[in-house]
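debug: dumping io for the single-chain case to check the tokenizer round-trip. Nothing else runs in this session.
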Amino acid sequence: MAYFVFSEYDRLISAASLASEMRQRRRDRFLADTLAFYSKKLLRNPRLLSYWRDLGASKYFDEGTVDYYNRNVLHDDNKPVTLIYDPVGPFCATIPPASAAVPTAAKP
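debug: decoded output
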């Protein structure tokens, strides 16, 4: 299933590039909105983040897709990734802020 999601993302990136080159405004806007959903919501799922990074899914896609993913999912300054990569479960473990105190074990 994860491979299908990333394959569709790859296809959308290619389609958006073509629509932009052909000056198809309505299609360009639709594809930009769809890519934003993938980049800002769907691909930030901890399991998909892990699949891309830990299981090497990025090696199956061209350089343009990898660059687009890195810019718009991993390194988006407006919406940074705040989830821990999750190769096995459970979903949605968040990264504590740097200022949070780390609990220490009580000494016997």
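debug: round-trip ok. The chain has one domain: 1-108.
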